[in-house]
Amino acid sequence: MAYDVEEAKKLVVEAGKKLLETGLIARTWGNVSARISDTQFVITPSGRAYDTLTPDEVVVVNIDDCSHEGDIKPSSEKGIHADAYKHHPLVNFVIHTHQKAATIVSITGMEIKNVYNEFKPVLGDYVPVAEYAMSTTNPLRKKVEKCMMMNPSCRAFMLMHHGTLCLGESFDQAFEVADALEKCCEKVIKDNYLRHSWDKTYSVDNKLNYFLNKENAGKMPEAICDLGSSVRNGNIFTLTYDGGKKVDVDMITGLAINGIAPKCAKIHRAIYESQNCTMIKHVANPYEVAVSCLDETMYPMIDDFAQIVGIDVKCVPWIDGDTDECAKEIGKAIDGRNAVLIQGNGALVTGNSDGDMQALDLIMEKGCEAQVDVSIFNRPHFVPKAECFLMRTVYLAKYSKQINK
Questions:
Q1: Handedness of CA 174, 176, 182, 188 (dihedral sign)
Q2: How much is the pLDDT for 50?
Q3: Chain CA centroid to CA 366, Å
Q4: What is the pLDDT of residues 242-300, one digit of tens each?
Q5: What is the pLDDT of residue 20?
Q6: What is the 3-state secondary structure (H, E, C) of 15-32?
Q7: For 5-197, CATH number?
Q8: Is 37 exposed, middle or buried (0-12, 13-18, 19+ CB in 10 A)?
Q9: 366 with 360: CB under 8 angstroms?
Q10: Domain 229-403: what homologous superfamily?
Q11: Backbone torsions φ then ψ of 330, nearest 5 degrees
């Protein structure tokens, strides 16, 4: 049964906040809709942050031609939602997420042929994957529609390199599908590792060492350098390092104003000289450290990584006895990107707001976790270079400006 328009708008707003809280989406990525009649649905607007979204900003869209009411632009994926309602008359709520485990499994291009018994009541026997096409495009819409039409009984779909589409007869059911799909994919990833490694029990530490050994990159380091995080204000940046110590550094001289600058201050200065950013953060999740140990350029496996982080992420060494030259190389490597891998030490990400940094932190971690898990699947697939360039260009020119309005 379709929702009343006002109730539908409130549920869409509530869903956006819930997706943020559960980590199923980040920033403005993903979208939510609710059916209000046989001919219309309401959907989240394009480029609006979910944590501040109001019911008045939720947009009414016509199913047949995707035209909309009002001046606010609906989500660019509105066509996929329209097709879901068109082909599934009983569906009243649709969630498109970029949830981590399901996105990682989607990269392999493999459908889940035999869903675990514990998830079958929600997911059914089978979860298909739609072929890749660049996000927000008509080719993507057509490929997702084809996938839905070929699998009419399915309510969960993976979108290769992108995310998921979860359908429900209600708000609660759509979330139940999204949650079950994520837990199912987490189990798929764990079981795949156990099958390849022959380990009897799963642990992240063992998996990362297995990955590095598989890639001929040794083992996880016992310790990493604290490369600090900083915030720039004019010609001064405040560097936080070594568990909370702070020092103000002059951009022009590179000298500390209120103490002695640690060696990692050279990196921060080089990055600020290289790009127009006001924040730098050292991220060293175990997956990020593992990928940095490869000492290789990292290429996007996920659309939002290409958009937000860059068309690739280079890896640069940090050698204690050669910090000046290393800092210069790091500054060059991050030019045009929002992250750089530091060999054996994770990565540094850059941005201009807390929202930027939260999104980069989350997506860098997801991208590195994807590289580890997909390698163990032995099915690495990368987003095509041309699409990476185009998505990155569009993001920098339009989307990032819209989110910061």
A1: negative
A2: 85
A3: 6
A4: 989 999 999 999 999 988 999 999 999 999 999 999 999 999 999 999 999 999 999 99
A5: 84
A6: HHHHHHHHCCCCCCCCEE
A7: 3.40.225.10
A8: middle
A9: no
A10: Class II aldolase/adducin N-terminal domain (3.40.225.10)
A11: -65, -45
Residues 95-143: pLDDT tens digits? 999 999 999 999 999 999 999 999 999 999 999 999 999 999 999 999 9
Amino acid at 356: D
**Residues found in the chain:** 405
Ramachandran bin of 132, using left for φ above 0, alpha for ψ from -120 to 50, beta for the remaining angles: beta
CB 248 within 8 A of CB 238: yes
Residue keyed to tokens 């082909």: 87
Report the amino acid identity of residue 240.
Answer: T
| CB-CB contact of 383 with 370 (8 Å) | no
Helix (H), strand (E) at residue 230: strand 229-233
Task: State pTM to two decimals.
Answer: 0.94
Burial of 3 from C-beta contacts in 10 A (0-12 / 13-18 / 19+): buried
- Domain boundaries along the sequence of the chain: 5-197, 229-403
- Give the tokens for residue 317: 């060494």
Q: How far apart, in whole angstroms, are the C-alpha atoms of residue 158 and residue 76?
A: 18
